[in-house]
Predict the structure.
Amino acid sequence: MNTKCSVCGIDIGKDFSYYCVLDPSSQVYLKPFKANNDASGLKDAIRRLKKAEEELGTKPAIVLESTGHYSSRLVYFFIRNNFKVFLINPLQSHSIKNINIRKVKTDKIDCEEIARLFFILNLREYEMPNDEMANLKILTRSNYHLSQQRVQVVNQLRSEIDQVWPEFTKIFADIASKTVLSLLTAYPAPANLLAAPKKKIVALIMSNSRRGKNYALEKYKALQRCAKNALIFGTQLDGLFTCIELHVSILQQMNEKIEHLEIKINEFTIRIPAIKLLESIPGIGAKLAATIVAEIGDISRFKNAKQLVAYCGIDPSVKQSGSFTGTMNSFTKRGSPYVRRALYIAATVAIRKSSKGKCVNEVIYEYYQDKIKYKARKQALGAVMNKLVRIIFSVLKNERSFILITPVQQKELYAAGNMPAA
């Protein structure tokens, strides 16, 4: 609970926001007023807040909901103007909106109720990340969204290929590869490929796949059979050919943009030591490490691994009433979905074995095998994600690379004073 401080609650909109100032006793000092989210509107809001500071003797704390890019701009604006900012989860603000029996919801009421949360909840002041971490977060999230869009385009292209070239995906499993995209750019229809010179097609396959002539000749023969069969039982429509050309072009552009983003991300990877530390954990590569570090931010914000687990949204929900205690509880999923996805990928990689039977991460693999003896596979994978977060916390907190040792060995080393506690 926060006391001895005035507070300004803000209900954020796209073009304008409503502000309400409460005095230190949580009484309304400045009735809700509207201000546009532009230079003149924000200057007027600052003027009113400074006047309130002079009359109340305390600088109003700014409380607002975390509403994506709409709130981000205001957060940075008020921090730059030397105000303390407190971000609240919309789930918290929505809960207080149901405190009254009557169903009344207006922006004026909402900004006042948001301000009152300052006196009810134990809020933590928002700390603005440094520029490097902020830039990395923007880039990794953009990379994620662009990759998701790419998956949709690949699926659309696959459906079109299956109609035009029914056997094509048996020849090339990865239809988004450079070789396939180059082939479909030159020959979107089977008839185009059949009319093209053999030498030209073989050269195209060799140059894009970077494989030998034998490989190219083998693929050429398979493509010839595929094209001839496609003319018999494939759907040969100009509309499909046009869509194939369109989606191939989009994929090529997306691949270029994703590659450009990854180059930019790598530039920050070199300058942020925490990323290299996470890369020492088997199963976490450079891209996953960058995403995890960007989402977690400064590890000093978390007192223990349990707090970091909750921040990632992989802490189990609790269902208990009277003598009933739920046992089939899922993740709370109240944290960052980006870090959760990265942890899921890292966990699935860490429990794998190579084709030669070598474990990616022996300790995590054994841990997973032990869990699936009495848990469902998804629950066991969730336990692996939880364990990875605790390892990540230890690595970042102690600023020491991960050492692949068994739990027994770890206890022995700690007892001997050769390593810090996790």
